Amino acid sequence: MPAEQKLDLLREGSCPGVEYRLAKMPMADVLRTRTVSEARGFLIMLIGANSDDILGFTAFGFEASELMAAVQTAMVGRMPFTMSRDAIFTHPTMSEGLNVLLASVPAKNTRRPA
Length: 114
Description:
The chain is an alpha+beta fold. It has a single domain, classed as Enolase-like, domain 1, CATH 3.30.390.30. It contains 4 helices and 4 strands, in the order ββαββααα. Strands 1-4-3-2 form a 4-stranded antiparallel β-sheet, with helices on one face. A hairpin with a 5-residue loop joins strand 3 and strand 4. The longest helix is centred in the middle third of the chain and has 13 residues. The protein is elongated.
């Protein structure tokens, strides 16, 4: 049974008006899930629209706790998501999937308020 793990700084309704970028992908895109034939689930990360701060993360699937530990460490250390995106993770591990997930993050909103 897949496990769900969640880190969320944007609790529903607690931060109205906070803009974010969304990165999401099916767990099947993580190579490690293929080696164990357990590809059910998904990954979702919220990143500030005007910053590279990680605002929230949900992992549902095989070894979700491994991904959660890596993302929680990044959040506690206030690391920009780009550090995890550009990191070289051991192969094959679940954390390696962060590279794939974060490669899809749209560019920062560089518009300045009027």
